[in-house]
């Protein structure tokens, strides 16, 4: 990954299927000076990821509730439904990208599993919804240092 110049905006990939939450996160990050690209459907992730080789950070919803995954994604699932864990397993191919895991579940066991999937290879921070603008920006800034 090439280093960005001082004036280049950091690029954040936002993978969140809830439109209202995605809009809010994108607004917060954009107003803070980041460039944001969004994935709404799982099949967009591999294409977007390949297209944006310069991604600096990923903000990822842990539970997306999307079914009907493309065949190549099915092998990483238990029941064919998309979760942040499925996306994380696919992300392990590029360990240099830090990840903010965001969730509204409050399920400590699932959060722990999610952190362990990437924990060895990626820098991660977990945010439980509802989170504040300040919490989101602190997590992003902390991971981008």
Task: Describe what is shown at a glance.
The chain is an alpha/beta fold and 145 residues long. The protein has six helices and seven strands, in the order βαβαββαβαβαβα. It has one domain (11-144): Rossmann fold, CATH 3.40.50.2300.
What fraction of the residues are assigned to beta strands by DSSP?
Answer: 15-25%
User: Roughly what is the average pLDDT, rounded to an integer?
Assistant: 76
* First-last Cα distance: 15 Å
Secondary-structure element order, N to C: EHEHEEHEHEHEH
**Class derived from helix and strand content:** alpha/beta
Q: In terms of quaternary structure, what is this?
A: single chain
Overview features:
five-stranded parallel β-sheet, two-stranded antiparallel sheet, 6 helices, 145 residues, alpha/beta, globular, Rossmann fold
Would you give an account of this structure?
The chain has 145 residues and is α/β, with parallel strands linked by helices. The chain has one domain: Rossmann fold, CATH 3.40.50. Helix content is 39%, strand content 21%. The chain has helices at 19-31, 44-51, 71-74, 84-91, 108-119, 133-144, and strands at residues 11-15, 35-39, 57-61, 63-66, 82-83, 99-103, 124-128. The strands form two sheets. Strands 2-1-3-6-7 form a five-stranded parallel sheet, sandwiched between helices. A two-stranded antiparallel sheet has the order 4-5. Helix 5 (108-119) links the parallel strand 6 (99-103) and strand 7. The model has no long low-confidence stretch (mean pLDDT 76).
């Amino acid at each position: 990954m090439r280093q960005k110049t001082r004036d280049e905006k950091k690029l954040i990939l936002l993978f969140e299927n809830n439109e209202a939450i995605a809009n809010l996160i994108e607004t917060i990050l954009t107003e803070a000076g980041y460039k944001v690209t969004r994935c709404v459907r799982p099949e967009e992730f591999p294409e977007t990821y390949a297209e944006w080789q310069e991604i600096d950070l990923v903000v990822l919803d842990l539970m997306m509730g999307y079914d009907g995954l493309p065949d190549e994604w099915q092998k990483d699932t238990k029941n064919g439904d998309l979760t942040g864990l499925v996306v994380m397993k696919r992300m392990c191919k590029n360990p240099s990208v830090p990840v903010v895991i965001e969730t509204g579940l409050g399920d400590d066991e699932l959060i722990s599993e999610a952190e362990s999937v990437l924990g060895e290879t990626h820098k991660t921070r977990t945010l439980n919804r509802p989170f504040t603008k300040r919490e989101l920006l602190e997590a992003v800034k902390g991971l981008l240092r």
